Amino acid sequence: xxxxxxxxxxxxxxxxxxxxxxxxxxxxxxxxxxxxxxxxxxxxxxxxxxxxxxxxxxxxxxxxxxxxxxxxxxxxxxxxxxxxxxxxxxxxxxxxxxxxxxxxxxxxxxxxxxxxxxxxxxxxxxxxxxxxxxxxxxxxxxxxxxxxxxxxxxxxxxxxxxxxxxxxxxxxxxxxxxxxxxxxxxxxxxxxxxxxxxxxxxxxxxxxxxxxxxxxxxxxxxxxxxxxxxxxxxxxxxxxxxxxxxxxxxxxxxxxxxxxxxxxxxxxxxxxxxxxxxxxxxxxxxxxxxxxxxxxxxxxxxxxxxxxxxxxxxxxxxxxxxxxxxxxxxxxxxxxxxxxxxxxxxxxxxxxxxxxxxxxxxxxxxxxxxxxxxxxxxxxxxxxxxxxxxxxxxxxxxxxxxxxxxxxxxxxxxxxxxxxxxxxxxxxxxxxxxxxxxxxxxxxxxxxxxxxxxxxxxxxxxxxxxxxxxxxxxxxxxxxxxxxxxxxxxxxxxxxxxxxxxxxxxxxx
Length: 509
Fold this sequence. Notes:
With 509 residues, the protein is α/β, with parallel strands linked by helices. Helix content is 36%, strand content 15%. A twelve-stranded mixed beta sheet has the order 1-2-4-3-7-9-8-13-14-12-10-11, sandwiched between helices. The protein has a two-stranded antiparallel ribbon with strand order 5-6.
């Protein structure tokens, strides 16, 4: 008898590359392969296919879903909800008794996730994002998925496939985006707190226009695992709340503060217990009003924010002007990274891209790949612009501007750090104006596109550098909220929260 065991036929993971495929790719890439080289590559690729087959057959660990839930139902009445559910977390914890809305780019196992796009309609995640797990472990009660902008590619609130999200203070105006539903639900007291995502201001913009607290934490402090990426070097997830104390409590939970008594599935970075911020004051803190951050703002917005910041002197802080001209270039530096990085990650990389360590959501990746191949025309106009322009840049300029912009981010970061050696925080208006009017059928496409991204001068730079940045309502103009942004040192989110809490107490007394 033969010692050779015959291997049974299996479903092939990939179609075997042919010599014709190799010649065709060689011609397109101008590799000028010889017939001998083509044959050698064909044989070598056959061996590599076996590795791909083995990866296909291996089963990755299935994420644990601890808390029972039902899929819920599609919301029909409230434009800020995409899907309603009711998931009760642990009996005790820092969020016990708190109701929570989750932005609809964040995975909640068993609950549909659309990310504002027709492309993903019908997709149901099989896992909870890390922030969802931590919220439920801390006693939070998740009431549903909040509407967000189409693939999170808008800073206003009219691009979601489910329809526009109206501002709680004026239904003719924008809520801001892309975390539009989260901001509205918190502002209207439908939920106690919400989770938002931020790549260029998408937590802070709607929080500012809805008059609530929104924090983009220090980059990397809160795990992004289970949240659909846009551009990995810009992606943040964070809290949206009505009060600074709630913001601190929610940050403590999602950043994974561990006192040693609550071992978690995901490791937490060391940080102070933010929820103790009520025990801190700001006497002696130095606050810098960033001159460039007040430039190109509506005059009344600049006045309200400056006046609000100066009240911090009553709490013992030192408030003075500071200048950093490169702040004006932050928006420009952000553009190549966002355009080209988003194209490579969201489109070419089917929502995940390459080159970062962490958990890749294969289910979401497959859903996106199928959607892009089947209906690319359903991409939002903002993403179509990024696709066309980025493909042009890649073909003609070999992505050199993405690389240069990333190098400039290092310089921008050092410059902010230089200022923050002398100042505990920087303060500036969050946005240049009060909420825009929502577009109507009378607006041209060009006018509508401008409304989608025209308010982000001060928010974008800190997605690049990763500094913590919080917006809090500084006052009202024509009955609409106006946000003040507080920016702190890397991983010093606590000081940002302390300053915000001190202002909140002065404002509300």
